[in-house]
Amino acid sequence: MRGFLTDPTAPAGLRLADDLPEPEPAPGEFLLAVHAYALNRDELNLLRRRPDGWRPGQDVAGTVLRAAADGTGPVEGARVLARLDQHGWAERAAVPVHSAALLEPGVSFEQAATLPIAGVTSLRALRHGGLLLGADVLVTGATGGVGQFAVQLATAAGARVTAHVSRPERAATARALGARHVVTRLADAAAHGPYHLVLDGIGGPALADAVRLLAPGATAVLYGNLGGPSQLSVADFYAQGWNARLVGLISADPGVGAGGGPTMADDLATLARLVADGRLTPHTTLTADWTRTPNALTALARGEVRGKAVLTLPPQGHESVLDRAL
Ligand SMILES: NC(=O)c1ccc[n+]([C@@H]2O[C@H](COP(=O)([O-])OP(=O)(O)OC[C@H]3O[C@@H](n4cnc5c(N)ncnc54)[C@H](OP(=O)(O)O)[C@@H]3O)[C@@H](O)[C@H]2O)c1
């Protein structure tokens, strides 16, 4: 089987191997023919941190080649999207049933692949704000992978969104996503607040600036630290956000479903349905054949990707793939 693995001597530290072992799904896993996958910024860090020979790949979409042996999950031939921990940048992958959802016919594999990490992060971050109807919401990095979904979902939920972008030329994109106001300096966001909810993937000095914009009892959700470490003082909450709370979001948490809350599969299904209904539109500025994954990673590292980058695999003949996989 063909798939990517880390190799420090290869371009972008990634090599396409053609002799990988076929996946061996556990009883609660199905075998997926991968048709598209998306890149995430944190995967740049993972590629550096993991040992040589590690096989990356978290956001995938494709067709079920063989249903899970325990009888759960999607049937053979079903179109699905899934969030994996690794091994997704390959022709085939073993996918836990609890991390996958069905795709409606109108949703392409390219669209679906953008949703697992970026979409679920934005959805779970917004959930911390509770009812958003008429609420003022501030989203930093609003045209990024997570930010683009956060702006659209908050707007769909009835919030008035202020988008913070890195430079003025991003403003038109942020408005097209649904933002009512767009700022390039957080200080300027004060005119449209205070905020019921702040979503911040930048951290650094931006976090203290954003906390000062919170309404009393409001919520700030921190999910990234692109701007470096943050220094926060209770004085930042004195500004106006008395008794506001700060949530450190780890969106991969599989335990969200415990106690009756939505599971990863629930959230993936919700996002896929919103795309099918035309209420959520993934913005992808780089789509390429999967053999170009190292080039796409280089573009991502250089800051040349807006929204998401998606890699596509040619269709795999169903029968012949099954023959080889079995
Ligand atoms: N906790 C979790 O579960 C979780 C899940 C997903 C992602 N993350 C993290 O969240 C962060 C964002 O992820 P992403 O996929 O959305 O990344 P992304 O696609 O690269 O988007 C980042 C956005 O932030 C903007 N930005 C970056 N640095 C900035 C700065 N110093 N000041 C102002 N704007 C800045 C970028 O603007 P330009 O494009 O104009 O530069 C871009 O719009 C990353 O750190 C990622 O690792 C965490």
Describe the structure.
With 326 residues, the protein is an alpha/beta fold. The chain folds into 2 domains: 3-114 and 283-325, Medium-chain alcohol dehydrogenases, catalytic domain (Quinone Oxidoreductase, Chain A, domain 1, Alpha-Beta Complex), CATH 3.90.180; 118-248, NAD(P)-binding Rossmann-like Domain (Rossmann fold), CATH 3.40.50. The chain contains 11 helices and 15 strands. It has helices at 41-49, 109-113, 115-127, 145-156, 171-177, 186-189, 205-211, 234-238, 264-276, 293-301, 318-325, and strands at 3-6, 14-17, 29-38, 59-66, 79-83, 92-96, 100-102, 136-139, 160-164, 181-183, 195-200, 214-222, 245-248, 284-289, 308-312. Strands 3, 4, 5, 6, 7, 14 and 15 form a 7-stranded mixed sheet that branches. Strands 10-9-8-11-12-13 form a 6-stranded parallel sheet, sandwiched between helices. The two termini are 12 Å apart. The structure holds NADP nicotinamide-adenine-dinucleotide phosphate. Residues 40-42, 117-118, 121, 141, 143-147, 166-167, 170, 201-202, 223-227, 249-252, 303, 306 line the site of NADP nicotinamide-adenine-dinucleotide phosphate.
